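fyi for ur records
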Amino acid sequence: MLRAATYEELLHVAHKAVRIFKQNDLRCCLIGSAACSLWGTTRLPGDVDLVVFTTTYNQEELKDVLTDADDAFYTVPSQRRDAAYEVLYHFLPITDDNDTADSGEEDTSGSDSDTVEPHSEDTDDDAEQDEGEQDEEDADAEEDEGRCKVDILTPGICSTPHVPRAHVARRARLPVMPLIPLILLKLRGWTDHRDSNRRDFQDKVPNDVQDIDELLEIACEMGVRLTHDDALWLPDGFVEEAQERIDAYLEEFPNSSLYWYTTGLVLSRLDRERDKVWVL
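which gave:
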């Protein structure tokens, strides 16, 4: 059974994908659980979600950009019978990208790969021991094999907004969706999962709630407000679309109301302009 990626491996895959897209003049940022974790949530993310800000490429073409650039990225057909797309993964474990061949630096590690070792005769016991050790190494290698799922979106899919370059956040040297729209995207995920007939989607609801509550708390602690200049770029439709979902969340989790009011997310932009509600 393939193992899941560690947090460090997820970040490594994210860095690699961002770098490849940048080399192809494509701007992107992290969304989903990986972005949440970079903002400070406690749940270990399960995959890498990226939105690429382009109208030239579709999702499948963007996957090809990654697989063409690095053999560690690969796609497999979706298991859904009606799906016309492929699922993107990255092989695990991750090999070091910064070897001497890539860096162009001279290898000063002092490797003795060309040195001839003294010959020694193996007894039968020694041979059996060597075979046993090799079997253990092979088993360890198999246990270490895994894959990291990578989801690629473009603006408009699942309500994902186009983020101006100046408003993309930076966390751990990675481009990340700003906090306010990330909360509203997680809220969209909660609604979609809660209302789905698919059991695997419904199973994600507790994780959605945990992420939303922690993101709201982080936003309040950081003093992030919808009415601040760094959030006023958000499209009116994106914020207004979220109001019904916020009402549904408040009805189900009334204890979160203070967080929603503190961040200004219970008011649409039209409400703020009409009532001149500005939080400084």
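The beta strands are 28-31, 48-52, 73-77, 86-92, 146-153, 169-171, 174-176. thats all i got for now
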